[in-house]
Amino acid sequence: MILALTSRRCLARALVFFFALAAPFAARSAEPPGIFLTWVEDPLRSMVIDWQTVASAEGQSLEFRERGVRDTWESAAAAALPFPFSDRTIHRVHLRNLSPGTEYEFRFEGFERIYFFRTMPENNFAPLTIALGGDTRHRKEWMDAVNIQAMRYDPDFIVWGGDFAYADGREDRLYRWYEWFDSVRETLITPEGRVVPILLCIGNHEVRGGYIWGADRGDDGYEATDAFRASIAPYFYSLFAFPGQPGYAALDFGNYLSLIFLDTDHANPVPGEQTEWLRRALAERQGLFGQILPVYHVPAYPSVRPFEGRVSQRVRQHWVPLFEEFGVRFAFENHDHAYKRTLPLRQHRPSENGIIYFGDGAWGVGTRDVRPPEDYGYMALAKSVRHAIIMTLQAGHATFEVISENGEIIDRFPESRSAATSAVSD
Ligand SMILES: [Fe+2]
User: Fold this and answer.
1) What per-residue string of b and e applies to 44-55 under the rule 16 or more CB within 10 Å gives b?
2) Percent residues over pLDDT 90 in the chain
């Protein structure tokens, strides 16, 4: 008996010793725990590359080169940034002066795998594929499932409109961010190593208390400062280069696409400075871009929550008239955890030349029951289904296919001729 215990202890010690020896070598060959690519400027000629390491705070770098063209690598030193409440460090390199429509491969110091990315094309003659949605992680397996379906379309990039890890700025929910970055690393990198860039805007679950008037602040507690915004949304402003402060921004792709990222009362009020900025941003871009696409979290035209919701009313009052004035044709909303496509709307009523609002944020979350479309009078389609919206943009013309987590196509827009015909004959 004593002998058996002793030998078991010896075996345990030997295993501990073996793994202690093996760990550094395993770590060298593994991928970093977090990899994230995004843009803060010209997606035709730049890329921001983040990677995370544990217990190696300083002096990291990556190497990069044009894929399949050059033999020699160029080195780029990274800035080291804190991952809030974590022993991880974020390393960030901003590559500039790249060529449009070109593949670049890269590898991180201390890690073996070689990845690559594509810069965006100079023009929109060939189709550009964008996967859109929001509300990404109640459960990692739900997020993984929709990621995998979206990747079947080989998207050029992904746009998520708020509510990512559901950490609410809380230290005790740090693990949710780890799961989120695990999902991104495991399912949004192709087997060949292409890393799909992701663009984000803020939602209520990025913020302590959810909104600028969060429970302990009240309507007068908001301060329009970088420090205040970082204090209520510590992860959002630290983990992601885009959109940075103040948290709303525009990103222009050549002359064919402009994405407008907005903050629906989470770290910036809808009215005031943000709305004035939006007016200028839309006025400067009107007629210059094939598509101007606003992306934000709380819907103007909800599929689940009440039409009279406080933030929905503010979006309709302050932003929708600007969208209508400056030629927006499609807007992307989230937060309600369902799929929806509205009728084309102008002044809140169906109109042939109106704006279509897609949503409503159910990428990787539990869905909610939608209200019957006739309750609203503005809905074309609403379903309680986790999904990704796949937008294909070519020469300024947009088409949409919406895929569920099971790979079923739940909506197409414009609807195909045969579907329209059969609908009429039915
Ligand atoms: Fe939300």
Assistant:
1) bbbbbbbbbbee
2) 82
Mean pLDDT of the chain: 90
Using the mean position of ligand 1's atoms as its centre, give its distance from the Cα of residue 161 in Å.
9
Decide: helix, strand or coil at residue 12. helix
97: Cβ contacts below 8 Å, ≥ 6 apart: 45, 46
Beta partners for residue 250, in sequence order: 260
Strand-pair category, 339-342 with 356-359:
antiparallel
User: Taking the C-alpha atoms of 152, 186, 253 and 293 in order, what is their torsion angle to the nearest 10 degrees?
Assistant: 70
Contacts for 313 with CB less than 8 Å, ≥ 6 apart: none
Q: How many A from CA of 162 to the centre of ligand 1?
A: 7
CA–centroid distance, 202 to ligand 1, in Å, is 9
**CATH number for the domain formed by residue range(s) 34-118:** 2.60.40.380
pLDDT at 416: 58
**Residue 134 CA to ligand 1 centre (angstroms):** 9
Span from the CA of 300 to the centroid of ligand 1 (angstroms): 13
Tokens in use for 298? 């709380």
Is pLDDT of 18 > 90?
no
How far does the centroid of ligand 1 lie from the alpha carbon of residue 67, in Å?
A: 39
d(CA 370, CA 138): 19
Rounded-to-5 percentages of helix, strand, coil across the chain: 25, 30, 45
- Given this model, what pLDDT does residue 30 score? 79
Q: pTM for the complete prediction? A: 0.91
CA of 164 to the centre of ligand 1 (A): 9
Centroid of ligand 1 to alpha carbon of 337 (angstroms): 8
Average pLDDT over residues 79-98: 96
Q: Is the pLDDT of residue 15 over 70?
A: no
- Sign of torsion over alpha carbons 92, 97, 98, 101: positive
Cα 292 to middle of ligand 1, angstroms: 23
**What's the CATH superfamily of 128-415?**
Metallo-dependent phosphatases (3.60.21.10)
Ligand 1 centroid from CA 264, angstroms? 10
Spacing, Cα 129 to ligand 1 middle (Å):
25
What is the three-class DSSP state of 414?
Answer: coil
Amino acid 375: pLDDT: 81
Do the Cβ atoms of 157 and 390 come closer than 8 Å?
no
CA of residue 332 to ligand 1 center, whole Å:
13
Sequence spans of domains, the chain: 34-118, 128-415
Residues 6+ apart with CB under 8 A from 321: none
